[in-house]
Amino acid sequence: MRVLGIETSCDETGVAVYDTTAGGSAGLRAHAVYSQIALHAEYGGVVPELASRDHVRKLLSLVRQTLAEAGLTTADLDGVAYTAGPGLVGALLVGAGTARALAWALDVPAIGVHHMEGHLLAPLIEDDPPEPPFVALLVSGGHTQLVAVDAIGRYRMLGETLDDAAGEAFDKTAKLMGLPYPGGPQLAALAEQGTPGAYRFARPMTDRPGLDFSFSGLKTQVLLAWQQSDQSPQTRADIARGFEDAVVDTLAIKCERALDAAGSDTPACNTLVVAGGVGANKRLRARLQAMCVQRGGRACFPRPALCTDNGAMIAFAGALRLQAGQHDDAQVKVVARWDM
Ligand code: KG4
Ligand code: ZN
């Protein structure tokens, strides 16, 4: 089954074709992402109306480009998957409307996919994919969640953030130290030049039991440290390093707890799947891999390009659902907020 995937939930237009007969990474016939970062940078954040308009401008040419790269035409498609939420409603409607129209014209089924399920399944697009049960850490700009994956489609929420998401904390912290939007990756790059231990921030909510997170207090601690510092480039790098270490440590502590809670005699306790934009963070990847290896298990990540928003994860998640016989009726329905 060849499925076209369309992602337009925020500021990235993503399109891909996934072929289930090949499977693994070979199944990903082509994928392309157009980022609107330059468009939103001058506003310091995503402007929803501009995002929708830019998706309209780019989406069809990206569909054409992706099909050409895959060596396919629309006649080769067996289904169309699109992100139905959560996200910006206007932006989601562009992808949903286009996907529905294409599916109708081609007389193939269409399916709306949960954006976070897309992220969660992205590591399965890589070779030697993990098999459920496993524990998933989803860390994006809008979500920070620990999920027990009993089977594909059977998810139990173990913990989530009570305020800012991890990516949001990266972006806000970068902004308060004067880095341009979206600051997460830039803050991470800056942290590479920082002196470890020069600044030490709290590891929020690790001193009590539980799997929930809270990152907004950390941001306030950084603000105070920044305001009281000499604000030199080296100090900025040192604070960035202190912040990154605090987030990475906090996530690692909670992941280990979640693996412990999954039970010592089940495979889930040793397999951690990490996805979402912050999953591209090098220090987080190294730390979580080391923690899992020490337990005799492994951490599975998608390649960095499939950690951040993309169409491949939507094509893949949609293909699994379509293969299982699911599809939506002809309505164009999207939702801003949606529990997975
Ligand atoms: O998954 P994603 O592309 O979009 C959402 O669904 O939110 O995640 C974007 C988030 C942003 O907050 C961005 O700053 C963060 O992921 N991010 C990173 C890195 N790359 C992207 N945060 C830390 N280190 C990185 N290398
Ligand atoms: Zn995302």
Automatic annotation (TrEMBL):
Residues 28-316 form the Gcp-like domain. It holds the Pfam family TsaD. InterPro entries: ATPase_NBD (IPR043129), Gcp-like_dom (IPR000905), KAE1/TsaD (IPR017861), Peptidase_M22_CS (IPR017860), TsaD (IPR022450). Coiled coil: none annotated. One of its GO terms (molecular function) is tRNA N(6)-L-threonylcarbamoyladenine synthase activity. Its EC number is 2.3.1.234. SUPFAM superfamilies: Actin-like ATPase domain. It catalyses: L-threonylcarbamoyladenylate + adenosine(37) in tRNA = N(6)-L-threonylcarbamoyladenosine(37) in tRNA + AMP + H(+). Signal peptide: none annotated. Its cofactor is Fe(2+). Fe cation binds at H115, H119, D309. Substrate binds at L138, V139, S140, G141, G142, D171, G184, N281. Keywords: Acyltransferase, Cytoplasm, Iron, Metal-binding, Transferase, tRNA processing. GO terms for cellular component: cytoplasm. GO terms for biological process: tRNA threonylcarbamoyladenosine modification. It comes from the Bacteria. Binds 1 Fe(2+) ion per subunit. Its main location: cytoplasm. Required for the formation of a threonylcarbamoyl group on adenosine at position 37 (t(6)A37) in tRNAs that read codons beginning with adenine. Is involved in the transfer of the threonylcarbamoyl moiety of threonylcarbamoyl-AMP (TC-AMP) to the N6 group of A37, together with TsaE and TsaB. TsaD likely plays a direct catalytic role in this reaction. This is tRNA N6-adenosine threonylcarbamoyltransferase. It comes from Pseudoxanthomonas suwonensis. The gene is tsaD.
